Amino acid sequence: MRIGELATKTGVSVRALRYYEEQGLLTAARSSGGQRRYLDSAVDRVYLIQMLYAAGLSSRTILDLLPCVDAKVNTPQSRAMLRAERDRIDQQITQLLRARDRLDAVIVLSESSASGCTRTDTDVLVS
User: Fold this and answer.
1) Among 59, 113, 61, 53, which residue's Cα sits nearest to residue 82?
2) pTM score, whole prediction
3) pLDDT tens-digit map of 51-92
4) Is 70 exceeded by the pLDDT of residue 126?
5) Closest CA to 41 of 62, 24, 26
6) Which of 50, 56, 59, 101 has its CA 20 to 30 A from that of 119?
7) Mind spelling out the 3-state secondary structure of the chain?
């Protein structure tokens, strides 16, 4: 199938598909005219790539994991890589929770008369 068909079937932009190919995540044969031609299995590959991106993995990490996916083998290294990614995400969550807590404290302070801020309870519309 051509790149436009793959984009339509997966809901992924043509630009993203080209990027996946540049990163080595997706492969395409070339016609004599230089057009990309994908196997039907490329649809599942794109869905997998999208799922891994949505899980917060980088292109590099995805590229490192794909040989295990293709061979249908999980190794201690691939599991360690996935655990490391989960730990990275956990750290980000912790940082975001701290940021939210600090913001909550600022909001509480701003609503207090002790803040010294003039408080208005009306919305001002600007045209």
Assistant:
1) 61
2) 0.71
3) 999 988 999 999 999 988 888 888 899 899 889 989 999 999
4) no
5) 26
6) 101
7) CEHHHHHHHHCCCHHHHHHHHHCCCCCCEECCCCCEECCCCHHHHHHHHHHHHHCCCCHHHHHHHHHHHHHCCCCHHHHHHHHHHHHHHHHHHHHHHHHHHHHHHHHHHHHCHHHCCCCCCCCCCCC
